[in-house]
Every structure is written in C-alpha cells, then in structure tokens.
Design goal:
mainly alpha; Four Helix Bundle (Hemerythrin (Met), subunit A)
Length: 210
C-alpha cells in the first residue's frame, strides 16, 4: 500500500512543524476540525462550479494541513481515543464532500451522467472500505488490507481532477474508472480477510454455522 511509504516520509516533514504548533498552543482537535471545514467548503464551492484546478489546489492544502493533527497531538502528549475517533469520523465527511462536489458537477453543468454514476460508486464503495475495517476491528478482528486505502483514493481523485482542470483530455474519466476498480477490489479484499479470520476462529461444524 502506498500509504505505508508516504506516511513515514510525511511524518519526517510534519513532526517538527507539529511540535512548533503544539508549543504555540494549537490543539490537534482544532487542526482536525479546521481541515475538515476547509476541504468540505472548497469541494462544495469549487467543484460544482467546474473550477476543478482551483478546488483541487485548495483541497490539497487543507488535506496536507490536516495531517498535522497527529504530530501536534504527539507534541502535546494528547494522543488518545477521542482524537482517533474525531479524525476518522471527520475524514468521512471530507471524503463525502469531495466526491459529492464532483457528483454535483457531473450531474449539473458538467453534463456527464456516466461519470456521475462512477463518482457515486466511488463515494459509496469508499465508505464501505472504511466501514468494513471499523466493523471488523469492533469485532476484535484485523482488517488492515487493501490496495486502495484513503491515502491512495485521495491521491487518485485529486490528481485526476487537477489534471482535468488543466485541460488534460480523459484524465478525470480514467482516474475515476481506475479508482472505482481499485476500491471495488479493496472491498473484496477486506471481505475475504475478515471471512478468513472468522473461519479460523469459528470453524463451520456439520455444514452449518455455529
């Protein structure tokens, strides 16, 4: 998974910045909430109006800024369950805003019902990817598998949309179709992983379920 390589590199850059913000009195919760508000506002303002490049640049800034919350929490010694819950929950709002903004564009002035459908599929399947992991962990199972976690999905959709804003032909169509396929595979991988663990822990007896 790309995030395994991206996160350590970003961590080396963001840690000293987060430490400085923590010393200045900035809280991790404030960064998390601010990042979500910024991404949501930019996605729902720029994308439905067809301002794809501007929207992508603003969203990228807020996404990178939002990644500082963990570094700030560590610097302030405030890492905990509340921060993890808040971050994960607000990430879903940001993701929904990005794909929702694109959906409004394609269904409106973008006039592309096919890509509107693909965008909707990416939105729903992305939520399923996240929910599958959360539900599995709630059952005491591991589900940290898949080729398209949130980092990968954001990179694909933002790069494709940014290139479309620059006028690159078919960039957005290729990116969204690719993302739809990768997300569908990830859902399947997570179902298979949880099924494998359940079968190991709760073996089928006499042809039925226990």
């Amino acid at each position: 998974m790309l995030s395994l390589h991206v996160r350590p590199a970003l961590g080396r850059v963001l840690t000293p910045i987060g430490a400085a913000l923590g010393r200045a009195g900035v809280t991790a919760d404030a960064i998390t909430i601010g990042g979500t508000v910024g991404v949501t506002g930019a996605a729902l303002y720029f994308y439905p109006r067809g301002r794809l490049l501007a929207g992508t640049l603003v969203i990228t800034v807020f996404v990178l800024g939002d990644m500082l919350d963990g570094a700030v929490a560590r610097a302030r010694g405030s890492s905990g369950r509340w921060g993890a819950f808040l971050d994960s929950t607000l990430d879903r709002i940001s993701d929904a805003a990005i794909f929702g903004g694109l959906l409004l564009w394609f269904a409106g002035r973008g006039e592309n019902s096919v890509l509107a459908g693909v965008t909707l599929f990416c939105l729903i399947s992305g939520m399923v990817v996240s929910y599958a992991k959360a539900r599995a962990e709630g059952l005491g199972l591991g589900c940290d598998v898949g080729i398209a976690e949130r980092t990968e999905r954001l990179i694909v959709v933002l790069v494709a949309t940014g290139l479309a804003g620059l006028g690159v032909p078919y960039a957005q169509a290729v990116g969204l179709w690719l993302l739809a396929g990768l997300t569908a595979v990830t859902v399947g991988q997570r179902f298979a992983e949880v099924r494998r663990q359940v079968r190991r822990l709760e073996p089928v007896v006499g042809g039925g379920r226990r």
